[in-house]
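explain this chain.
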Amino acid sequence: MVDQYVMEDIALEKKFPSGVRIDDRDGYEGYIIEADQLLEIAEYIRDEMGYDFLSSVTGVDYIDDQMMEVVYHAFQSTGGEALVFKAQTPRDKPVVPSLVPIYPGADFQEREIWDLFGIKFEGHPDLRRILMWEGFNGHPMRKDWKEAYYEEDGKPFDKRWPEGSGVYRAEDNNPYGKNVEYPAGLDPYDWEMNPDEAIYAGL
């Protein structure tokens, strides 16, 4: 493990002396890559170092530092530990290159980060929201995001969807309302339990 990282340090820093540095923050690991060299270095990581499988792409909002970070975990398909590398970008204009041309599996993960954090992936073939709907206000994983009308006593719509329609609550079709009214003669504390349920209930 140590030897592996030593060799990676030598390879990356020798090849890209101005583009790679070790993440020496307390409790962190991996490498921080200059965003403007991310494509070139990621291609080197894949082709020359053999990390041909990108497992995950995640976003982080460092609001106190006014910085956003994208974290990548890459593996060699032949086995071994992950190689962690990161790209940082200013929080007020968060843009990093898309790695879809190098790792096609980054496609939906970059869309999710754009949707939730507002980090733009330049060169992405189809950068649209993937969890929230188009027209949703803001990016809800940013640490300063607030729901519309959050400070009011009531929300503008009873059901949280554009125009206040298009969805229903499961409770609307529940014959027992909010699960506090039961059919006559039914004691909810006298239900039959199977052995596993009885064990968890402490019986």
